[in-house]
Amino acid sequence: MDEFQHRPNREVKLNARPAFIAAFVAAVTLAAAFLLTSRRPRSIEWIPYSAAAVAERKAEGRSSAVLYYARWTLSADPKGGLVTPAVSKSLAEAGFVTMEADLTDYNVERFDVLKKQGFTTIPILVLYPTAGPRIAIDGGTPESEIVSTVERFGR
């Protein structure tokens, strides 16, 4: 009789183990999914650049970031490393409206306008904060420096 009573307990333990393992795997999977999605950079939308759009955002009290680039630049990345996941995340968190100016098919007059603004190279990321002068960041600038500049001048 002693063996008979002991046997159901063993069966319960054996049946509980797969349930425990399944619950543990589910908990670990949920935790991993949460951590991976919470660390994923926020997606940002790059709208076409226009001087009027920058002025309009400034009038609304919003900062703008404009990426000037061309696909024919000598860099392997035509955007010069200026748009990495970390940079995109910092721009989004700092509240910048992001615009891009693809100068691949533009003529010399368009570049003359950039030169008059003081820009001599592309790619270049230009921050137009709500207050203060614009900040230009050249392609090849270290990511950490770009992120700290964005954080300093955002919102």
pLDDT < 50 stretches: 36-41
Describe the largest sheet.
5 strands, mixed
Strand content: 5-15%
Indicate the CATH class of the largest domain.
Answer: Alpha Beta
For the secondary structure, the number of strands is 5
Class computed from helices, strands and strand pairing: alpha/beta
Instruction: Tell me roughly what share of residues is in helical segments.
Output: 40-55%
Describe this entry's structure for a reader.
- By secondary structure, the chain is α/β, with parallel strands linked by helices.
- The protein folds into two domains: 1-40; 47-153, Glutaredoxin, CATH 3.40.30.10.
- Helix content is 49%, strand content 15%.
- The chain has five helices and five strands, in the order αβαβαβαββα.
- It has helices at 2-39, 51-59, 85-93, 108-116, 143-153, and strands spanning 47-48, 64-69, 97-102, 124-128, 135-138.
- The longest helix is centred in the first third of the chain and has 38 residues, at 2-39.
Describe the secondary-structure layout:
Layout: H1 2-39, E1 47-48, H2 51-59, E2 64-69, H3 85-93, E3 97-102, H4 108-116, E4 124-128, E5 135-138, H5 143-153
Parallel strand pairs: 1-3, 2-3
Antiparallel strand pairs: 2-4, 4-5
